[in-house]
Amino acid sequence: MNPQLQKLVTIQQMDNEIAEIQELVDLIPKQVAAGEKELEGKKGALNTLQQEIEELKKKRKQCEQDVQAEQDRIAKTKAKLPTVKTNKEYSAILAEVDAIKGKIDGIEEKELEVMEALEEKEAQIPDLENEFNGERKKFEDYKKKKEEELNRTRTELQGLQDKRQEAAQSVDARMAMLYEKLRKARGVAVVTVEGEVCQGCHQQIQPQVALEVRTSPDKIHQCQFCDRYLYYIPKPEEEETETAVSK
Ligand SMILES: [Zn+2]
């Protein structure tokens, strides 16, 4: 094969490999971010529970304050007793005190319910915390592994890019330019010919050109349709036959 063309084939292989590795380099941070988001979601259950507990604690405090306020009212009401003049007034005050006591009973009943709910919720915390800590540990291990993978892959990528740059230095400037242009526009710049068909655009090229690609591999050929550089990989048995013929 023409040495310049051979170089382009090698560079194209490197570029394919570089593109593949670059994809992995781009993918790894996304994988870590997705894992982190999943972990945040798992923390959501714990957060919700903690919020519910805070709410219940507020309610309990409110009940305590309400009971205190009602007890103050009882004290104030009872303070009126020494000044009463009639039985009717006396009974009225006692009735008021009883009513307040009834109200306190109601509040205390509610407070008990709140405390039971609080106890129940607080009992769920350790399990949920353990579960979450386990998940977090798992994620941290995963993240560490992925960061190591990213570093390894970046080093590999850099090595390949250096090698590629070195290989590109000895390529004919015009060919290198067309290679870049084709690579950008069509993805693949150097393709094989099978039979008389360009494996880049899959069109049938001139039989004469197809023949020349096969028989004069030292020359540089391009597809008349897609401009791609053409080369030919002899099949093992064909090579034998052709060698036999040429002898
Ligand atoms: Zn073509």
TrEMBL record:
Q: Which Gene3D superfamilies match?
A: 1.10.287.1490
Pfam families, per the entry: CT398_CC, Zn_ribbon_9
Stretch forming the signal peptide? none
InterPro entries reported for this sequence: CT398_CC_hairpin, Oxidative_Scav/Glycosyltrans, tRNA-bd_arm, Zf-RING_7
Q: Which UniProt keywords apply?
A: Coiled coil
Record domain C4-type zinc ribbon: where? 197-230
Please report the stretch or stretches of sequence annotated as the CT398-like coiled coil hairpin domain.
11-187
A molecular function annotated in GO for this UniProt entry is:
nucleotide binding
Q: In the UniProt record, does the keyword Coiled coil occur?
A: yes
User: Coiled coil: is it a keyword of this entry?
Assistant: yes
- Show the coiled coil region(s): 32-80, 104-170
PANTHER family this protein is in?
A: PHOSPHOLIPASE C-BETA-2-RELATED, SCAVENGER RECEPTOR CLASS A MEMBER 3
This chain belongs to which protein, by name?
Uncharacterized protein
Q: What is the protein's species of origin?
A: Nitrospina gracilis (strain 3/211)
